[in-house]
Amino acid sequence: MVSGTPQRLPRWIPRLIMAAGALLAAAGVLAGLARMDWHIPVPHRVQLTVEHGPLLVVGFFLTLIGLERAVAVGRRFMLLGPLAALASTAGLIVAAPPLIVKGLLLLAYLGFAATFGYLLWIARTAHHMVMFGGALSWLTSGVLWAMGFSLPTIVPWWISGFVLIITGERLELARVLRPGRTTRFWFFTAILLLLVATAVELVFSDVGARLRGFALLLLAAWLLRFDVAWRGLRQHGVHRYSAVCLLHGYAWLVVGGLLALVFGHQRGGFLYDAHIHAVLLGFVFSQVFAHAPIIVPAVAGVRLVFVRFTYAVPLALGLSLAVRLAGDLLTDSELRRIGGLGNALALALFAVATVFSAFQARRSASPHRSISARLAPQLPRAGGERGENDNAGLSR
């Protein structure tokens, strides 16, 4: 149970932070397009193409996940991570002194790790332990960056952090299926192997990368076999949509695991692009699509309604990512560029669908039509016993 009295945040604070994170995500996407030689007018073009990853991982994901926890649990100190993440990535855009940017980045990761450490301290559960491991993986990536390690050395820690945080949440939901001892042994063996492999990759890059790929395959197989998303397919509306997005993401995790297992550690080029985007685009953003109908109403207080054309979002991402990976595997730069542009358009479509859903909710005279109203009983109250997982009801 969360101790003390929860501190309710004024609604404008999370809305402002979410808006800033979305702008940084847009900057990261545009920098990625510029990196693939699309003529995108971004400031400090050469520098930002290199910082495409940090803008998305730190500026958007660390900000959004940290903010979600702060709102759910109601502890204002948890805003340290999101605010420092925004400041550090804004520093990248305006070309602030590297020492300031690195200091703010480390502060962001420390605040993020402190958030999940606090959740583990107040609720000593297996899924909190796994998510705390993900936060420590991200903190490790920040330390490596501050020490001057190259981005290909840092990316495996980003990937492990994402996978641990997401699978930790899915483990918590899988309790409704009463997993047996063998099932839990499978899960935690894969988690331990993932952490060990990521550390080994620092010294023995090929061996570590192949072990990490095998661990990703084990976790993907576990998710495809035991995740409660399969129940969502038998439901309707937003529940089925979320289940489709989750399973779509797990399939891309399989692809990412296979690429690492077969080709080992990559420091650049086509195979590097294929592996990191199979996981960070295909797997991670599919989870974003699945959870957005819960996170946006819970964090920003914006009502949404489900519209069927939202299914076009994971479809567009999957097809464009398949084109991109085909270009990578065939070493076809033009095909890769087309796929990359399609990826950006899929993310833009997601933003348009979310705005349209909110607009439709405002026009609706029937509160029962909104997602936030229909799912409100499944959302935890700020400071409640389950404040650590305010998007848990999505796929039930």
Notes on the protein architecture:
- Mean pLDDT is 86; it is low at 1-5 and 367-396.
- This protein has two domains: 10-122, no CATH class; 192-395, no CATH class.
- The protein is mainly α and 396 residues long.
- It contains 15 helices and no strands.
- Helix 1 runs parallel beside helix 4 (80-93).
- The longest helix has 32 residues, at 269-300.
What is the secondary structure topology, with strand pairs?
Elements: H1 12-35, H2 45-50, H3 52-73, H4 80-93, H5 98-122, H6 126-146, H7 151-173, H8 181-200, H9 205-226, H10 229-232, H11 238-263, H12 269-300, H13 312-329, H14 333-363, H15 371-375
Helix pairs in contact: 1-3, 1-4, 1-14, 3-4, 3-5, 4-5, 5-6, 6-7, 7-8, 7-9, 7-12, 8-9, 9-11, 11-12, 12-13, 13-14
Number of self-contained structural domains:
2
Helices and strands, in order, run as HHHHHHHHHHHHHHH
Q: What are the low-pLDDT stretches, counting only 5+ consecutive residues below 50?
A: 1-5, 367-396
Strand content: under 5%
Oligomer: single chain
Total E-strand runs: 0
Radius of gyration based on Cα positions: 20 Å
Mean pLDDT, rounded to whole units?
86
Largest sheet, if any? none
Structural class given helices, strands, pairing?
mainly alpha
Taken from the alpha-carbon principal axes, the silhouette is: globular
Helix content bin: over 70%
Report the end-to-end length measured between terminal Cα atoms. Answer: 23 Å
Number of continuous helical runs: 15
